[in-house]
Amino acid sequence: MKNLLLAAALALLAAGCATTPDNTVFQMSTIDALLVGVYDGHLSGRDLLRQGNFGIGTFEALDGEMVVLDGRIYQVKADGSVVEVNHDASTPFASVCFFNPDIRFDLTPASDFAAIEEQVNRIAPNQNLFCAVRISGKFKSMHTRSVPRQQKPYPPLKQVTARQPEFFMEDIEGDVVGFRCPEFVKGVNVPGFHLHFISRDRTQGGHILGFELAEGRGEVDLLSRFHLQLPQDAESFAAADLSRDRSEELHAVEK
Ligand code: ZN
After folding, report:
1. From ligand 1's centre to the CA of 150, what distance in Å?
2. Span 202-224, pLDDT tens digits
3. What value, to the nearest 5°, has the Cα angle with vertex 223 and ends 247 and 46?
């Protein structure tokens, strides 16, 4: 009994040590930089994984959707295929954290995207915090998209997503991975929910446009720190006009 208590105390101590520096969203570049076409890779996968084991993003030249899960980086390509990427692959935009869920909960079956948002908001009502969200389950349907690799001069994201490949999956198991960001991140990240999907067998996925959950478990990690890294040496970033409100453009490319 004494040993058990000691083990529990040590585990708590270890968790405490792990959560203090880990209570952070790390982000490379800004969403508005991505919107205007700053697709040069600024950070390697290796360096990204030093900042977190869970998250979402994209790749150099906008070469597909990124899912970071359990310390592995997956690339959902425009043809729908999924590969685990080499850590030399670099990213122009990504958000990651070390995922240590604060709350675990069962989700109401037959929930769609909006219903899941509502359930997460009920479980994690402080919408002025960042929140990492993982949903593991069976999905009756899953609708995603990816984006094709671009050539220079890079077009704005809106132009790319106007012709985005979309994928419709049915009766599929997998993980939803992403963040709920506070409204005040406008211009920097995506306010509200931004979720990506990867199937259990890691062969399908993408940026989520819609889904219907059959059954699943939710996990939420509340994050109170935000670490923004800007691409200091990138000419494309230096030249980008980031003074405008691009909320409408963002809505058009994300939803
Ligand atoms: Zn996305």
Report:
1. 16
2. 999 999 999 999 999 999 999 99
3. 85
